[in-house]
Design goal:
Order of helices and strands: HEEHHEEEEEEHHHEH
Number of domains: 1
Number of helices: 7
Distance between the termini: 45 Å
Shape: globular
Radius of gyration: 17 Å
Bound molecules: iron/sulfur cluster
Helix content: 25-40%
Length: about 150
Amino acid sequence: MNDCDENADALPWYKDGLRFKCTGCGKCCTGCPGYVWVTLDEIVSIAELLGISPDECKRRYLRQRDSRYALVEMRLRNYDCVFLKDKRCMIYEARPRQCRTFPWWKENLHTPASWEIASRSCEGINDKAPLVPYSTIQKALQDGPEESKKSS
Ligand code: SF4
Ligand code: SF4
């Protein structure tokens, strides 16, 4: 085996890319309790987009857990994210990193089986979707959260 072959073996199982295109169905923004964590920088960006102060943004849309902030969920509406309206994200341009990098999370990319499980709740993962190159996936993975929405 030459060096190139060894490097090829070191690449993850999805080295040839994965098929995904978001349909905007909004399912990943609802359906089970959890946490979408938001950094202080992201709070500023969301507040700017909404034309309100960061403090007002915190008061209206965020909940505090120790020193961190997470988006409010609507318990009486199937745990919808507070920014989900008519199946659309109202802060799409300023959505948190945790949302921007879905479905390229460690837990989804761990094995082919993890990816298959992710496809059951995300219709954008399917054989007809465009192929997303490995380099794009790796970049999103590096930018992505250490923990998922379900983490406490
Ligand atoms: S569940 Fe998948 S297809 Fe639907 S909005 Fe979320 S990322 Fe897009
Ligand atoms: S911020 Fe937008 S993308 Fe993120 S969970 Fe809420 S509605 Fe979905």
